[in-house]
């Protein structure tokens, strides 16, 4: 993890941010972006995953516990100006919806709440999906019988967010890949927009979008579907707009 970088705008100085799901791949990138912007960072992750944050342990406060544990979330989000939440539909105990509910209920009034999910979540049913995405969703739903995954719980989490009167943003990720940052992803209101055609974002840039959303009021109560800014579809859109 790099130290605070003066070249990065110090938009987080004097502000506290909570990252729920901080130990995962997306979470660790978000921690890094938040520290670089000068935020005081609080992380939440499962007890057994706390060691994954060893590299930043002296720079952040970590609360170990399940992210749908209301007591853990209540303590972690106390006094936070923003809460970034990785929504994951693991298990069959309402992990995603329980996490979303705990964050919505306990975050301080007016806090910026930014959640992650995939393109499969639709706010108004007007997204247009390829057969590949439809098949992947059907397969993921089918996996509920293994009791390892409950994709429908991520839909329930999204419904809670959409109905909430908080200052939320639900960032809908495309397929993800690793690699160095290419810059802030571009977005569209609906899947099916040609700008999203490439369906690929660097995970580090997905995290960047989540952190930058905190200070972007145009994203309040929006569910942007994102794609990498250097992908062919994003570049073609830029060229057409020029
Ligand atoms: N993967 C994709 O291609 C993709 C595409 C679009 C959108 N997204 C969205 O991106 C976000 C991050 O997903 P990711 O795939 O990149 O993974 P990730 O960042 O590695 O996050 C996985 C999270 O799930 C937690 N987790 C793993 N197993 C668990 C379990 N059994 N019970 C409870 N929590 C568990 C991890 O915590 P520990 O550190 O404790 O294991 C971690 O916080 C999600 O919101 C996802 O919907 C992903």
Query: What is the total domain count?
Result: 1
The assigned CATH architecture is: 3-Layer(aba) Sandwich
Tally the helices.
7
> CATH top level?
Alpha Beta
Reported by name, the CATH topology is: Rossmann fold
Pfam families: NAD_binding_10 (PF13460)
Protein name: NAD(P)H-binding protein
Organism: Glycomyces tritici
Task: Indicate the topology.
Layout: E1 16-20, H1 25-36, E2 40-45, E3 60-64, H2 70-77, E4 82-86, H3 95-106, E5 112-118, H4 131-142, H5 151-163, E6 167-173, E7 176-177, E8 186-188, E9 201-202, H6 203-213, E10 225-227, H7 232-241
Parallel strand pairs: 1-2, 1-4, 2-3, 4-5, 5-6, 7-9
Antiparallel strand pairs: 8-10
Helix pairs in contact: 1-6, 2-3, 3-5
The protein binds NADP nicotinamide-adenine-dinucleotide phosphate (NAP).
Describe this structure in words.
This protein is 32% helix and 19% strand. The chain has 242 residues and is of the alpha/beta class. It has one domain: NAD(P)-binding Rossmann-like Domain (Rossmann fold), CATH 3.40.50.720. Helix 1 links the parallel strand 1 and strand 2. The model has no long low-confidence stretch (mean pLDDT 96). Bound molecules: NADP nicotinamide-adenine-dinucleotide phosphate. The site of NADP nicotinamide-adenine-dinucleotide phosphate (NAP) has 23 residues, from helix 1 and strand 5. NADP nicotinamide-adenine-dinucleotide phosphate (NAP) binds next to helix 1 and strand 5. InterPro entries: NAD(P)-bd_dom (IPR016040), NAD(P)-bd_dom_sf (IPR036291), Polyketide_Oxido-like (IPR051606). Pfam families: NAD_binding_10 (PF13460). It comes from Glycomyces tritici. This is NAD(P)H-binding protein.
């Amino acid at each position: 993890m790099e130290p605070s970088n003066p070249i990065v705008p110090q938009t987080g100085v004097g502000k506290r941010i909570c990252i729920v799901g901080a130990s995962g791949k997306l979470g660790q990138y978000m921690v890094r972006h938040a520290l670089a912007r000068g935020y005081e960072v609080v992380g939440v992750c499962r007890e057994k995953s706390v060691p994954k944050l060893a590299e930043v342990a002296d720079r952040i406060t970590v609360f170990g516990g399940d992210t749908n544990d209301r007591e853990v979330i209540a303590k972690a989000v106390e006094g936070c100006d923003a809460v970034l939440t990785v929504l994951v539909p693991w298990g069959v105990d309402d992990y995603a919806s329980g996490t979303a509910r705990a964050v919505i209920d306990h975050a301080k009034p007016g806090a910026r709440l930014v959640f992650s999910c995939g393109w499969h979540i639709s706010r108004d049913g007007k997204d247009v999906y390829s057969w590949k995405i439809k098949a992947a969703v059907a397969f993921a739903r089918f996996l509920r019988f293994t009791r390892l995954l409950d994709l429908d719980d991520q839909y329930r989490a999204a419904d809670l967010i959409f109905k909430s009167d908080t200052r939320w943003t639900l960032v809908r990720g495309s397929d993800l890949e690793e690699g160095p940052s290419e810059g802030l992803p571009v977005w569209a209101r609906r899947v099916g927009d040609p700008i999203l055609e490439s369906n690929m974002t660097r995970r580090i840039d997905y995290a960047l979008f989540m952190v930058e959303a905190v200070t972007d009021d145009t994203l309040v109560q929006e569910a942007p579907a994102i794609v990498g800014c250097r992908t062919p579809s994003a570049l073609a859109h830029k060229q057409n707009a020029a």
